[in-house]
Amino acid sequence: MTLIEIFEESISVLRTNKMRTALSTLGIIIGIGSVITLMTLGQASQQSVRSRIQSLGANLLTVRPGSSQQGFLFGGQGSNTTLRYEDALAIQNSQRVNTIDSVAAEYSSRTQISSDKGNTNASVAGIAGNYFELRNITLSVGSEITEEHNQITAKTAVLGPEISTELFGEGVNPVGETININGQAFSVIGVTKSKGGNLDDMIFVPLQTAQKILFGVSHVSTVYVGAKSEDGMEAARNQLGYLLLERHRKTSPEEADFSIFSQEDLLETASEVTATFTALLTGIAAISLIVGGIGIMNIMLVTVTERTTEIGLRKALGAKRKTIITQFLMESVVLTISGGIIGVSLGLIASHFLTKRFSLPSIISWESVGLAVIVSSVIGIVFGLYPAYKASKLQPIEALRYE
């Protein structure tokens, strides 16, 4: 028999018991569909995080207090209160740091927010310096927080678009309205354009107001520094680091109580986290493929038993062991590839729905599609090999006597 004839016969055999065939492929369908969905979502999440970080600008350095992860130039063990607004001012005014052109500081914390039309719990960021410029935030209406607002500890606020909608309703201009932040009345002076992520859900107030009136703190959460050029990033990081070491009375980078991140560092960390998470979930989903493969093997063993007489008759008429093995392997591979194709289709549909649901970029992972087809074939061969071998070992006389 030719391969085409064997293939056609395999299709015919599988069609004779459609329910068994469908149940046999169910494990493969679930496994392949899960792997496709998780790999696609992982890549979409990675792309989303990468786009958001890159949107902040290639020349941005981020300084944070406390311990850092391995791989950054400066970073040691410390509390999260080691950075002060005075550090940002020192960076801005230092003659030694000549590779930067703008600085901003932020202190953020979650608290209760209310208006006449609603209330919620949201993140409030006290800001100073060129914050909106460095973070590429623009306004859809109103005006920004200024240095004058900081000097007089003004109770003014700029809302993200999501929090604006939550407090005042869709399409309402809240400029001039009053909101209560932690029991204090603030006048809304602007609304930012949507950037995606948590920035759309934040409220921005003057840093001095946040520190002295709202939260009673003297430290900042983050200092943002804009380098003059992308080529000067490393020099800027060095100058920043040694200036802050001197201000914090530390003698070496190993003693630093702050961390300096570049956009490259953040991209690398985000990529590692999403890749690890995706690999973990994909590995868990892949277990169902093994379960599906075992199910295929069980069904094929049952099939061999049911068709013992047929196998004996074929061998008595001169069928070779190779032909018997090929026949049963073909049936196993057809089962798994059919399940793989259905699983790929369902996985792509689920991925499309979930990426839209969570506002992620729509990505088709063709690598995972190709891998799924290959894996389906391999599962069919591996788990179909033993039943095929068992069928080929049957003796014609014993097989013909089997009832």
3D architecture notes:
With 403 residues, the chain is α+β, with helices and mostly antiparallel strands. It has two domains: 3-51 and 269-401, no CATH class; 83-247, no CATH class. The chain is 56% helix and 17% strand. It is built from 13 helices and ten strands. It has helices at 3-16, 18-54, 85-93, 131-134, 147-151, 161-168, 207-215, 233-247, 263-306, 308-316, 321-357, 366-392, 396-401, and strands at 60-65, 100-114, 119-129, 139-142, 156-159, 178-181, 184-192, 202-206, 222-227, 258-262. Strands 2-3-8-5-7-6 form a six-stranded mixed barrel. A hairpin with a 4-residue loop joins strand 2 (100-114) and strand 3 (119-129). Helix 1 (3-16) crosses helix 11 (321-357) and helix 9 packs parallel to helix 12. The longest helix is centred in the C-terminal third of the chain and has 44 residues, at 263-306. The two termini are 27 Å apart. The relative contact order is 0.19. The mean pLDDT is 86.
